[in-house]
Amino acid sequence: MFIQSPIVERLIESFRRLPGVGRKSAERYALHVLSMPKEQAFDFSDAVRVARERITWCPLCRNLTDATPCVVCADERRDHSVICVVEQPSGAMAIEKGGSYRGLYHVLHGVLNPLEGIGPEELALDLLFKRVEDGAVTEVIVATNTTAEGEATALYLARRIGALDVPVSRIAHGVPMGGGVEYADAVTLAHALEGRSQI
User: Fold this and answer.
1) Cα separations (Å) of 106 from 41, 85, 109, 142?
2) Which domains, and CATH codes, for the chain?
3) What helix, strand, coil percent values describe the chain, rounded to 5?
4) Burial of 76 (0-12, 13-18, 19+ CB in 10 A)
């Protein structure tokens, strides 16, 4: 039984707001923070406060940044004619870790979901369309997830951007490196076959 205190309960509930954190994990995190030396705990809370105050969205690509524009948009060595559209900043981070993509990004901060009231306005898609209309973009790569909403968003973007005579491509989805075909589900295999390339 965890200590009965409204202060501790507030701390636990704060950790529970993080994605993928249940009651038990939140209790563990709270106990860990309360067991830290005060200086470490205060440094932790200060890091959260400073990051939340100083990190904003890039006005061009909507990625998280502490500079305006972000370092990717400001980098002249990158290919400014290609934009990769991702759902969240974590998508851009994952692609950057791969080290092979040298274009720009556009972060949606969500996907189209009419049932939840999320339409093009909520995703500020006009900003993306304006970037494409400016004429310097020669390709848009859509890297949304393979959920129903991610696929619907990809189709919407392909239709709208395609009408601007700019090619739209979709990242390939399929069997991961080191994964066996026999362990892949039917939808993954279908995507892998559709996205096949000549060797």
Assistant:
1) 35, 5, 9, 10
2) 6-54 (1.10.8.420), 64-170 (3.40.1360.10)
3) 45, 15, 40
4) exposed
DSSP string computed for 55-119 = -EE-TTT--EESSSS-HHHH-TTSEEEEEEEESSHHHHHHHHHH----EEEEE-SS--BGGGTB-
The whole-angstrom separation of Cα 54 and Cα 13 is: 24
Q: How far apart are CA 58 and CA 72, in angstroms?
A: 10
The mean pLDDT of 26-40, rounded to a whole number, is: 96
Is the CB of residue 101 less than 8 Å from the CB of residue 95? yes
The whole-model pTM stands at 0.84
AA letter at 45: S
Task: Tell me the mean pLDDT in the region 127-139.
Answer: 94
- CA gap 199, 189 in Å, rounded: 18
